[in-house]
Task: structure prediction
Amino acid sequence: MATDRGTFGRMGFILAAAGSAVGLGNIWKFPYITYENGGGSFVLIYLAAVLLIGAPIMLSEVLIGRHTQLSPIGAFLKLGRTAFGGVAWSAVGWLGGVTGFVILSYYSVIAGWTVYYFGKCLSWSLQGFSSETADGLGDAFGAFLENGPLQIGFHAFFMIATVTVVSFGIRSGIEKVTKILMPILASILLLLCVNSIWSPGFGEAIRFIFHVGPIRASSVLEAVGHAFFTLSLGMGAMITYGSYIGSKQSVPRAGAVVCLFDTVMGMAACIVMFSIIFSVPEAERLTSFSRSSTILFTTLPRIFYDLPFGALLSPLFYLLVALAALTSTISLLEVVVSYFIDLRGWTRKRATLIAGSAIFLMGVPAALSLGASSALSDFAGVGVLGALDYLASNWMLPIGGFFIAIFTGWFLDQSLTRRELESGHGGSFALFGVWRFLVRFVCPLAIAWIIWAVVGGRSFA
Ligand code: TRP
Result:
């Protein structure tokens, strides 16, 4: 039935999966939630969550995809029958597809901001960056958010870029683009990271990131939730990418590399951001408009231009964030598209165009919910964009992850999971017992605790 699926070449999976994982979550979200949660202890808990919950579920998703060679809905339909005797499990795949739809619709709006700021920084670099510009940055960002046509325009631009890449398929679209973008991305970030060693705030930044202090319960929840988001787990994105690899590739090794790379990139982004932020006196860190979630677009550009080579580095930086977002949006769209290809028999072109247009339309209310329309901006107290993000990261991803862990830990045959994890890995996987224990007990219990806490009203958005 599958006609237009495609497969990854060597390294294709690792690059594409790393591209999916590294995104706005690493560069925009991780530094600001680390800032809000007081640094060191939060980072430590996040690292533990990646190791104990993220990594095992990463292996689960990839093995499900590789074994079935199908996207999430098809994969659960196929395996759910043999392992459980029913199609109830395919609901988990459906949830994943819907989650991808929801996340992409607002993620693309935020990704549009990075493109806009790339253009802005480029023009500041060429025309000069005055102190007047600096003083008005917060207000300018606010005005940009309230400008409906601009918001929709950049959202459209980003969706078109995403659709274009995905429509070229696995090998000549996704793999080719990530193969070029990932090394560029890693080099720019590394360059910025090395450059930050000489900035006056570097020492304080390192102290902040690694200083272990007291921690709030809500921060624990936020750290675990973020581990899901940043590793692209809980909605079958890694099932989808896993379905494009063959039996010669080691699932544990590929999964570990992706987790490690994502974590290193997140930590590097933190070092870069905090070195810049701590280079200015505390009172100046937040400009008039900004909350910590907007530091990336308000405080950062201003500080950039005071740094050595700032005029060169700042457009480079926003380019990096935009590219990181693009390699993430293509994975979100691919989940939705692969359903239409696998189960509806659509061609890739048709699937991408129709799914992409629908997601674009769904994102329009989110784009208008930043001030352009007061009804949409006040929706549920946080606006449509805020509500979608809340729904997706606090509910849909953890619930999806919970069922994926239960499914691989309790319902799939132990011999099947062992075979999948060992094939391509030299015939034996020494940590199989550890993986199985984490997936059977640690992951479900930890996630159930998060969901319980969310029900109890402790948001960890
Ligand atoms: N991981 C990406 C980030 O950190 C976002 C992302 C891409 C994602 N695909 C996903 C999140 C699938 C959850 C599920 O920005």
